[in-house]
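Our platform keeps sequence and structure together, in a single record for each protein. Such a record has a labelled line for the sequence and another for the backbone structure tokens. The tokens are whole numbers drawn from a learned vocabulary of local backbone shapes. The remainder of this section carries one protein's record, kept here as part of the documentation:
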Amino acid sequence: MLRLSIAAVLTLIAFASNSVLNRMAVAGGHISVGDFAIWRVSAGAVVLIVISLILRKGEVVNILFSSPKLRAYGGIYLATYMLGFSFAYLELDAGLGTLLLFGSVQLTMFSASILLREVLTMRRILGSVIALGGLVWLLLPEGKITLPFNAVLSMIVAGIGWGGYSLLGRQAKDPIPETAMNFCVALIICLTALFLFPQPSPTPTDTTGLTLAIISGAITSGCGYSLWYTILPHLGAARAGLAQLSVPPLAIFGGILLLDEVLTLHLILASLVVIGGVAYGLTNSKK
């Protein structure tokens, strides 16, 4: 149980780090959204294939191409998340986008838990309500809120894509090569989508942007997603969805540490509500 908890914490930190790296690269004017997504997926695919070759040697080809239907679905879900996420943030406020993303992820995974007839205790439901309420308090912009239809739809679809990707991970048997193949399929889909629907790229890619995208792909996405596939078979859909609600507060505090963003009482209190709700829902409850 302790090892599972440590792995879960490391995975959530990796997810939060992705958000920070994205902000550093894209918001910092070092790379465009589309280029960041392509380099991120490419780096993840390359690194995971290399790791698979080292760990599995002669077996890797069979493992990479085993269960082609699952790998196709995994790539489609992953590409849906990455493309929807990228396109949505061209128009959406960062906080509102994150709220829509994690709200749709939570809804997807809780709906799946009901369909899968998992046990949903009142404690877990209440913890989710508290955490979601804290997330609204944390991320909802003040003043007038603009909701561009295409951007909102893209982010909701991205959340459904990530929820589907996470649910698929519950069937993972060999996480690293399976995630490697998911990244390869996702790369093909992303390249095709950006070729068919090119986006304006006013931001030229510099060394900093390229480095951040590669770090995001190779370490916090590639290795982080492999670790996620390692622990998902041990989690129910509801627990996995609830745990992910802690990512936005972690990302915000990562931004404070690395990007000199301002720490406020509002951030502290709202984050405590989110983390408290997650902790309450995950502890002392049945699987």
